[in-house]
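Limitations
The C-alpha cells in this dataset are predictions for the assembled complex, not deposited experimental models. Users should treat interface geometry with appropriate caution, especially where small molecules or nucleic acid strands are included. An illustrative entry is reproduced here so readers can see what is and is not provided.
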Amino acid sequence: KAGVTQTPRYLIKTRGQQVTLSCSPISGHRSVSWYQQTPGQGLQFLFEYFSETQRNKGNFPGRFSGRQFSNSRSEMNVSTLELGDSALYLCASSSSGAQVTAFFGQGTRLTVV
Amino acid sequence: QKEVEQDPGPLSVPEGAIVSLNCTYSNSAFQYFMWYRQYSRKGPELLMYTYSSGNKEDGRFTAQVDKSSKYISLFIRDSQPSDSATYLCAMRGIQGAQKLVFGQGTRLTINP
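Predicted assembly:
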C-alpha cells in the first residue's frame, strides 16, 4: 500500500512569490492535515480537510490556504512568501476524523530567499 | 507557555541502555497521546498511541500516561544505534479530529 506522497520534495522561492504544495493521501483515506515544522517552533498544525471541507484551522495568517479535491488529494498554497515561511511542510492522512493514527509524508522542504 | 513541553535534548546514551523520554502538557482535554519517531530528512513515523491513562507496551517500547500529573513517557529498552532519531510526543482531544499538538521533539543518539 503506497504511503503519503508529497510533491515537490524541495522548493526554493523568492520573497513575495506564492507556492503550491501537493499531497496525495493513502488510498482510501479521506482526512488530510497539514503541518509546518521549523527548528524554533517545532511541528505546528495548519489545517485539516475532510471530504473536501476544511474542518480545523490552526493559528496561521490568511496567506496560508488549502483545498481538497474529490479524490482526497490536497494542496496548500502560501501567498506573498516571507523569509519566515522557510520550513518543512508535512502532510498527514487518516481514514477518517475519528481514527487516531495519522500517517505522515516525507514533507516538502521550502526555502524562501 | 506551550500546551506541550518536551526537553529538546540532545540526549546521548550507550547502546543497550534504557532510554526515558518525557512530555508534560497543560490541556486537560487531551485524550489521545502519541509518540512519533523522525529520522533526518524523513516525515514522522507513528510509534505508539495511548488513550487516556495507563501503559502500553510494544516490543522494546513502553508508553505511559499519567493524566493526573499531565505527564507522559516513552521508555526504550535495550536501545540500538538504529533508534537514534528525534522523538516527538503528540496529543489531541476527542473532538478536534486530527489536530495534533506536538512537543518540540527530543534528539536521541545511541552510541555503539
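Some entries come with short summary sentences. For this one: The two ends of chain A are 37 Å apart (CA to CA).
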